[in-house]
Specification:
Mean pLDDT is 81; it is low at 139-156. By secondary structure, this protein is an alpha/beta fold. It has helices at residues 11-23, 34-43, 60-68, 87-96, 108-142, 146-149, 208-214, 260-266; strands at residues 3-7, 27-31, 48-52, 77-82, 100-103, 165-169, 174-178, 182-188, 191-196, 201-204, 220-224, 227-230, 234-239, 245-249, 256-258. The protein has eight helices and 15 strands. The strands form four sheets. A five-stranded parallel sheet has the order 2-1-3-4-5, with helices on both faces. Helix content is 35%, strand content 27%. Helix 2 runs parallel beside helix 3. The termini are far apart. The chain folds into two domains: 3-125, Rossmann fold, CATH 3.40.50; 145-266, LytTr DNA-binding domain (OB fold (Dihydrolipoamide Acetyltransferase, E2P), Beta Barrel). It is elongated, with a radius of gyration of 22 Å. A hairpin with a 2-residue loop joins strand 8 and strand 9.
């Protein structure tokens, strides 16, 4: 039975949504505030969190930030209930990591369709994540290319070797990709898009910070808050304006802009700066 945590301060709306969800066969836990919702989450894992945005003391955005700060392999899907329809509000919620928005007033079908769609996505992600863990685990246990994959078999979060391989899987494909073939990685919040020298790309649910910690420092450098590049693919670096630079990578059409802040940090790593 799929579990849902419903955080809504309006008692009438909370009870009505709960009845709809229970009639659909879901286990539902109710919370009347952001704080009580987080307390419930600390005691039990949920597949989906449905949360109102406009609440006293702790609003929905703050709840989402707290949920995203938790360390879990497969985080709960987060759906906002909101009367806020401004594009900036929706954009802000998506940047924080919200999976969907249900706008008030809504129908029974609106909420059921949203939940079903998000659960389908979650199941797909969970299956691919488990396959990835299983394959990497087998490689590490059996020693088949284990040493070329990571430096320490017992800790999959150790630094990756440049000539090793990583298993990448998204909704489009699943491949073993050599670390040395990764040209650059761009990211937005919890998701990363990996671009390889053979013009393939993969979208995975992993923050840029994780890649920064694991990729070999002598080859990969961060040139922007949302971009890491492989310095072996640098073709040219040219001065731009206000002490910033344009950086061109092999096979990448558009140059990257390096700000003054990052150019200072990178001048010892990129000899042409």
């Amino acid at each position: 039975m799929k579990s849902i945590l419903l955080i809504e301060d309006d008692e009438y709306l909370r009870e009505n949504i709960s009845e709809i969800l229970k009639n659909e066969g879901y286990f539902v836990k109710l919370a009347s505030s952001g704080h009580s919702g987080l307390r419930a989450l600390s005691k039990q894992e949920f597949d989906i969190i449905i949360c109102d945005i406009m609440m006293p003391q702790m609003d929905g955005y703050e709840v989402l930030k707290a949920v995203k700060s938790r360390s879990t392999d497969v985080p709960p899907t987060f759906i906002f209930l909101t009367a806020k329809t401004e594009r900036s509000d929706v954009r802000y919620g998506m940047e924080l990591g919200a999976d969907d928005f249900i706008t008030k007033p809504f129908t029974r079908d609106d909420i059921i369709k949203s939940i079903k769609s998000q659960l389908d996505k979650r199941d797909t992600f969970s299956k691919k994540y488990n396959i990835e863990k299983e394959i990497i685990g087998l490689i590490s246990e059996k020693g088949v290319a284990g040493k070329s994959l990571i430096k320490t078999k017992t800790n999959l979060e150790k630094e990756l070797l440049y000539e090793g391989s990583i298993f990448l899987s998204d909704n489009k494909r699943s491949d073993f990709v050599k670390v040395s073939n990764v040209v650059y990685i761009s990211a937005s919040k919890d998701y990363s898009k990996i671009f390889t020298k053979d013009a393939k790309s993969y979208i995975v649910r992993k923050p840029l910070k994780n890649w920064e910690e694991r990729l070999p420092k002598e080859h990969f450098i961060r040139i922007h808050r949302s971009t890491i590049i492989n310095n072996n693919y640098i073709e040219n670096v040219e001065k731009w304006f206000n002490y910033s630079y344009k950086l061109h990578l092999t096979g990448v059409k558009e140059p990257f802009i390096i700000s003054q802040r990052y150019s200072r940090k990178l001048k010892y790593q990129i000899k042409t700066l």
